[in-house]
Amino acid sequence: MTTAKKILANGISEQEAIERAQRGDPECFEALYGLHKRRVYSLCLRMTGNTAEAEDLTQEAFLQLFRKIATFRGESAFSTWLHRLAVNVVLMHLRKKGLPEVSLEESMEPQQEDGPRKDIGTRDNVLAGSIDRVNLERAVESLPPGYRIIFVLHDVEGYEHNEIAEMMGCSIGNSKSQLHKARMKLRDLLKQSKAEKAANRR
Amino acid sequence: MLGIHTAGKTITDPPSIPGEKRAMTCAEFQKVLPYIIDGGGSEEEQEHLRSCHVCSDLVADLRYIADVAKLLLPMEDPDPRVWKAIEEKLGDEPLAKPAHRNV
User: Is the ipTM here above 0.90?
Assistant: First the structure.
């Protein structure tokens, strides 16, 4: 049985594990890691698209957690507090790498296309009901990093645009614009994948 | 391409009658779509959405993608070496000595 399960099987609640960890109890550090590692790692992996980086960032997020845990006062849920810490660790890492972020200038750029694209839209082309989590995961992995980050933060992790804007240092409008572009790119990727599957079945 | 989707006809402004408001085009609607897709939008924008199947299909697709995204679960556990690395670093810090157990 893992340490996390043992601790909780002994009737120790997560709240108590937090309080004990705040007093330096090493088993409770480990229990908290066991409880939250999957979500933190998954967030890091989705945002970086790279296993080695995700492992390093997970490690850093938990080290920061353990260093700062004494400051956790319970104003928010512990998982929310940890999650936000992990997001900040990832964003700091991406900034150091110089990955493109949302900028004010982007919103001032003219449309890249010369004019409206003429599509014949029919009901047969809608995506509804045709994609599953696996397809979407693959498509998200293919997104450019700047789009992937916004999409993961908003649509996967559930942050609001005002929260994303604060984290990313951009405006709410830019957050919305980037999210839209991310979803449009995913739509293109998913339609392409759907068309390829249909062609292979013939 | 993140283009503007339209029904398959050439976009020209319909002849204007003095005093009559021109209907919103797909290009105009899709320009504001990022800011209204999660709620809001003027009556004119809502009317375009109701009357244009191309734009309504586009909105349906984007909302569907957002809905499926909510179902993406945490993917997998990190390799055990991650905890080992944390244990070692914690051992060097004046926090606590972690127990050497498998997580």
Answer: no
